[in-house]
Inverse folding.
């Protein structure tokens, strides 16, 4: 999407939100919510990283309100599959892809509370906030949500997203301590090759390098990854990647004798099992940052210059360092700055 198209979409979302604000003009209620809480509907964001950062709220809801039925409404097949085995969820709905089936299932339901997890205006999320019936509706505070929701999570925009999601607990009268907001990965099937690899993988010996990213501006150059591995010949490295980057992964394993060949993973749970055995992970700003948080694995994160990405999506409850590019492109991060930080983590 071009910058011009993105700005046009943003203006449309903002105009739609302003229209809803004028139509609904809801007075803001002060917490805590003290009505019935038999069921909650949560609008889950579309990407893996967002899904991971929602898990602390799900765990806390089941801890404090074990009898409450938690329904997750997803807007992508990826996040729908991510949540399908989550034991903290009672029902899972896919809003896109099977529209008629979704509406036939969701429209007859009436929830006690609905929660929109986005902290900025989204046309889809605002529409579903209207369509899905709920006694009370909550969102995250931003200028375009005021007057649309009964309750708003009032936290600074740069608050880490997992903590922002857990802000709903304050509305429910059960505020969460940050140390209780570590994310997790729902269990998924583990393939035989991954099981065999894990059984032979030494614990806390390898340094992980995740070479994949969610978009072209977040990729680091292959020669930079190679330079990092070759600078530390006495260390063992392991490359993680998406299937689209398998050629780069294979080349790095071929060129660098200290990179341990590894099988491709099929899901984030398999990735998490591998990351849990690493002594450190180096990764661009992707869901892998949050996989490291799940497994309490130290991480070096490579970010673009946008401050909101460095703050809202930073590693949580884990030893970490962030290196930010001077431009929106991660590839402009100097490999020597990564090498320097890695030496500090390894106490060279």
């Amino acid at each position: 999407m071009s910058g011009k198209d993105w700005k046009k979409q943003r203006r449309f979302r903002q105009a739609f939100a302003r229209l809803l604000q004028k139509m609904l003009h809801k007075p803001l209620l002060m917490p805590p919510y003290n009505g019935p809480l038999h069921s909650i509907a949560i609008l889950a964001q579309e990407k893996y990283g967002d899904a991971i950062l929602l898990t602390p709220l799900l765990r806390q809801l089941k801890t404090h309100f074990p009898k409450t039925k938690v329904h997750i409404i997803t807007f992508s097949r990826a996040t729908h599959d991510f949540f399908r085995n989550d034991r903290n969820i009672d029902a899972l709905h896919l809003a896109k892809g099977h529209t008629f089936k979704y509406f036939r299932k969701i429209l007859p339901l009436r929830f006690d509370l609905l929660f929109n997890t986005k902290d900025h205006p989204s046309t889809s999320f605002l529409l579903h906030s209207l369509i899905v019936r709920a006694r009370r509706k909550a969102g995250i505070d931003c200028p375009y949500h005021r007057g649309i929701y009964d309750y708003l999570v009032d936290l600074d925009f740069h608050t880490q997203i997992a903590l922002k999601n857990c802000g709903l607990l304050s509305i429910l009268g059960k505020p969460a301590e940050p140390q209780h907001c570590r994310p997790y990965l729902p269990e998924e099937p583990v393939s035989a090759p991954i099981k065999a690899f894990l059984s032979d993988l030494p614990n806390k010996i390898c340094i992980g390098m995740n070479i994949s990213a969610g978009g072209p501006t977040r990729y680091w150059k292959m020669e930079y990854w190679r330079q990092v591995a070759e600078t530390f010949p006495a260390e063992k490295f392991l490359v993680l990647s998406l299937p689209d980057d398998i050629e780069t992964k294979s080349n790095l394993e071929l060129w660098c004798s200290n990179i341990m060949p590894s099988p491709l993973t099929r899901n984030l749970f398999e990735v998490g099992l591998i990351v849990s055995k690493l002594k450190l992970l180096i990764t661009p700003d992707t869901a892998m940052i949050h996989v490291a948080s799940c497994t309490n694995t130290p991480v070096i994160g490579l970010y673009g210059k946008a401050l909101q990405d460095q703050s809202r999506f930073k590693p949580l409850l884990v030893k970490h360092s962030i290196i930010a590019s001077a431009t929106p492109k991660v590839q402009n991060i100097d490999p020597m700055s990564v090498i320097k930080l890695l030496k500090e983590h390894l106490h060279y």
Summary: Residues 3-24 form the longest helix (22 residues). The mean pLDDT is 96. The CA atoms of residues 229 and 292 lie 20 Å apart. The two ends are 44 Å apart (CA to CA).
